[in-house]
Amino acid sequence: MTAPPSAPTAPSASAVHAAGVDGAGDAPGRTLRVVVVNGSPSEKSKTMGLVDVVLQELSAKLAPEGVAVDQTRIDVYRLGSAFTGAVEREHIAPEVEAALRQAEQADLLIAATPVFRGSYTGLFKHFFDLIDQYALANKLVLLAATGGGDHHALVLEHALRPLFGFFQAMTVPVAVFASSGDFDGTSLLNPRVYGRVEMAITDVLDLLKARSAPSPIRR
């Protein structure tokens, strides 16, 4: 798998961008609802540059199977004061509630954040502080992060995976990290990271197939 010469086309920069699920004419179960929770505080970021590669690889692998990828992107920094000032789920604004529900209802959740002072960003954590405790149970979650150097890759196992372990989510075994040196601006260039993305997507597809297979357990 080789890196493209230019950056992939980024999804909409709106706080919540949804293309619709199982649109008219789609066969049932032929659309994979993918929700990205973007913890970056910037409109153009290396974090979303990495996620764009993940989404492209996922779409390329599913297209031959006739499965469409419905992408929803939630930029937490765009959710505004109604989000940052929220303390309890019961009193949040409708647009914030809609974003939380989209994350909870995803078939695949991509949790992506830059590393800030050794961990995920505060807004990223605040978003998941408002998620229902059991809404992500058994949810397929792909972890992605970016940082200034390779040592920041520890955030995947020491911060992100335990967070989703609390939610009893099913985190994909292969997580993806890219450091600043892997990019030209926001364009991912390092073939090694592309290979890691490919491994992660293979994990995702294997887990999806396992979920759709008939259970061998007879009751």
Automatic annotation (TrEMBL):
PANTHER family, per database record: FMN REDUCTASE (NADPH) (PTHR43408)
UniProt protein name: FMN reductase
Species the sequence originates in: Nonomuraea phyllanthi
UniProt keyword Flavoprotein present: yes
Domain NADPH-dependent FMN reductase-like, chain residue ranges per copy: 33-181
Skewed-composition ranges (Low complexity): 9-24
GO molecular function, one term: oxidoreductase activity
Assigned keywords, A-Z: Flavoprotein, FMN, Oxidoreductase
InterPro entries recorded: Flavoprotein-like_sf, FMN_Rdtase-like_dom, NAD(P)H-dep_FMN_reductase
Tree of life domain: Bacteria
Annotated stretches, region: Disordered: 1-24
